[in-house]
Amino acid sequence: MMRKHFTAAFKAKVVQELLKEEKTFAQIAAEYEVHPTQLKNWRTVALEGLPGLFEKQENTVALQAAHEQQLSELYAEIGKLTTQVNWLKKKLLL
C-alpha cells in the first residue's frame, strides 16, 4: 500500500480546522481522510512552530545584513582575481 503524501498547504488547512475546535478529531479525520494520530502530530508541529514565525522577522534583518557583507566580500575577491588573471595574461604575452 502506498503512503499518502500531503502538501504543506493541505496540512495547514487541516490544522486550522483543528484549532477552530468546531469539530472533533474523528470528524475532521473522516472528512479529510487522515488518521487522527496524524492530525495530532500535525497540530503539535504547528503549535511548536508558532513562536518561530515571530522570531523569523527579527532574524531576517540580521541574515540580510550578513548576506550583503558576504556578497561585497565575494565581489571584492572576484575583482582581485580578475586583476591578477589579466596581469598574468599580459606577462605571458611579453
3D structure, described in words:
The protein has three helices and no strands. With 94 residues, it is an all-alpha fold. The N and C termini lie far apart (72 Å).
Question: What's this model, at a glance?
Answer:
With 94 residues, the chain is mainly alpha-helical.
Strands, count:
0
Can you summarize the main beta sheet?
A: none
Count the DSSP helices.
Answer: 3
Class derived from helix and strand content: mainly alpha
Order of helices and strands: HHH
Low-confidence stretches: none
Query: How much strand content do the residues show?
Result: under 5%
The average pLDDT value, as a whole number, equals 90
What is the distance, rounded to the nearest whole angstrom, between the alpha carbons of the first and last residues? 72 Å
The residue fraction in helices comes out at over 70%
User: Tell me, what's the shape?
Assistant: elongated
**Radius of gyration over all CA atoms, rounded:** 26 Å
Key phrases:
94 residues, mainly alpha, 3 helices, 0% strand, elongated
